[in-house]
Amino acid sequence: MPRILGVDIPKDKRIEASLPYLYGIGPFQARKILVEANIDFDRRAKDLTEEEINKITTIIQHNYVIEGDLRREVGQNVKRLMDIGAYRGLRHRKGLPVHGQRTKTNSRTRKGRKPSVGGRKK
């Protein structure tokens, strides 16, 4: 399994599909990196030479924020919103949807399971 910046990428997949396993790199960025590194999209990750892996690694290190640094940056942005009391920060704090979705019926992922209501006595 090839390792790029401390992350094992799947060896049997095409390199174009393997690079998005790095947090912060999507399909578009993966294609851009491969064009810059002059590597064919259809090559399998296990077929890459050490030199090509090093080329990909240097391109990613110089041009992209990924993995731990990106997670830390996103976490700090959310924490900043909560600290200044912005509306989005309050929604994060309460565990509700942040981007204006309806909450009367949907948003079970953010809110959790419905609270069960006990049986009524007559």
How is the secondary structure organized here?
Layout: E1 3-4, E2 7-8, H1 15-18, H2 27-37, H3 50-63, H4 67-84, H5 87-94, H6 108-111
Antiparallel strand pairs: 1-2
Query: What integer is the average pLDDT?
Result: 91
Structural class from helices and strands? mainly alpha
Please tell me the total number of domains.
Answer: 2
Beta percentage is under 5%
Largest sheet, described in full? 2 strands, antiparallel
Which CATH C-level class of the largest domain is it?
Mainly Alpha
Number of helices: 6
Uncertain stretches? none
Strand order of the largest sheet: 1-2
CATH A-level architecture of the largest domain: Orthogonal Bundle
What is the global morphology?
Answer: elongated
Strands, total number: 2
- Considering DSSP H and I runs of 4 or more, what fraction of the residues is helical? 40-55%
The string of secondary-structure elements, in order, is EEHHHHHH
CATH fold-level assignment of the largest domain: Helicase, Ruva Protein, domain 3
Roughly how many Å apart are the termini?
A: 66 Å
Radius of gyration: 21 Å
Could you characterize what this model shows?
The longest helix is centred in the middle third of the chain and has 18 residues, at 67-84. The chain is elongated and about 75 Å long. It has a two-stranded antiparallel ribbon with strand order 1-2. The protein has helices spanning 15-18, 27-37, 50-63, 67-84, 87-94, 108-111; strands at 3-4, 7-8. A hairpin with a 2-residue loop joins strand 1 and strand 2 (7-8). It is built from 6 helices and 2 strands. Helix 2 crosses helix 3 (50-63) and helix 4 (67-84) packs across helix 5 (87-94). The protein has 2 domains: 3-64, Helicase, Ruva Protein, domain 3 (Orthogonal Bundle); 66-98. The protein has 122 residues and is mainly alpha-helical. The model has no long low-confidence stretch (mean pLDDT 91). The termini are far apart.
